[in-house]
Design goal:
Layout (H helix, E strand, L loop, with lengths): L7 H14 L3 H14 L3 H13 L4 H15 L5 H4 L2 H14 L3 H13 L10 E5 L8 E2 L16 E4 L2 H10 L7 E7 L4 E2 L15 E4 L3 E7 L7 H13 L7
Antiparallel strand pairs: 1-4, 2-7, 3-6, 4-7, 5-6
Helix pairs in contact: 1-2, 1-3, 2-3, 3-4, 4-6, 6-7
Length: 247
């Protein structure tokens, strides 16, 4: 299942998060509850329940919704959803701690630790760029960031979603043709900390980074290209973004 920002439930969650940021918590909860009412599959129910849980004041209520979220998440065979397990189990453990149930808290802390190993995602993986490179070449860390001027990146980034790689290609500096390469990591990799557990739980965009080179093994041409208008919106967002990049 590919994370889709055009999904109506995802849109509700984004709307609710914007209300949260403005301090409108009651309105945010109403939006999240509407998302729960309209959720029609396991992924949507997991996501909506998670955001309803965030707005609960009492540990018992928060626990109920978090356990609902993890029950639906466990039914979804998706690496982006699996990446949320450590955070959700940690939140459940905290609820049990607040309720004085140390045994169940410890049980869920162990579950948190069991899911904190390196990503289990097997790909295929993609990297978006405007560089014209041959199959067999290597992409290496040390390039300039697409998102912050004058920042030299310590890692090379990639994703398991070709459309996300296509967005990266569109945002890449230069005038070359947008390209999405199929790549193979040559070393260990980790969830991209700049997106993991930020707005959405886990790493739904299946974005990763490595300090080792990525080998180009092919190229795809059938990703969904964003329009010039959409590109301008993304560029404006990046220009306004004052957050620090975890490098």
């Amino acid at each position: 299942m590919e994370f889709n920002p055009n999904n109506q439930i995802v849109k509700y969650c984004l709307q609710g998060m914007a209300l949260e940021e403005n301090g409108s918590t009651t309105e945010a909860l109403n939006v999240f509850e509407q998302a729960w009412k309209e959720a029609s599959n396991d992924f949507e129910k997991y996501l909506a329940a998670y955001f309803v849980a965030r707005q609960q004041k009492e540990p018992s209520d928060k626990l109920k919704w978090l356990e609902t979220a993890i029950q639906f998440a466990l039914k979804v065979n998706d690496d982006g959803v699996k990446s949320a397990f450590p955070g959700i189990y940690a939140d459940i453990a905290k609820c049990y701690e607040n309720l004085g149930e140390s045994g169940k808290a410890e049980e869920h802390n162990k579950l948190t630790a069991s899911f904190k190993d390196k990503p289990a995602d097997k790909g295929p993986f993609y990297h978006g760029t405007r560089a014209d490179l041959p199959v067999g070449d290597f992409l290496t860390p040390g390039g300039q960031s697409n998102y912050k001027a004058d920042l030299k990146m310590n890692h090379i980034y990639f994703t398991a979603l070709s459309n996300n790689a296509g967005l990266a290609a569109a945002l890449a500096k230069g005038d070359g043709q947008q390209r999405v390469y199929i790549i193979e990591p040559t070393g260990n990799f980790e969830n991209d900390p700049n997106v993991t557990d930020k707005k959405f739980p886990g790493n739904p965009t299946r974005s990763y980074r490595s300090s080792s080179p990525l080998k180009i093994v092919g190229e795809v041409t059938d990703w969904v290209r964003i329009t010039p208008e959409e590109l301008k919106v993304w560029q404006n967002k990046l220009d306004k973004n004052k957050g620090e990049i975890i490098n």
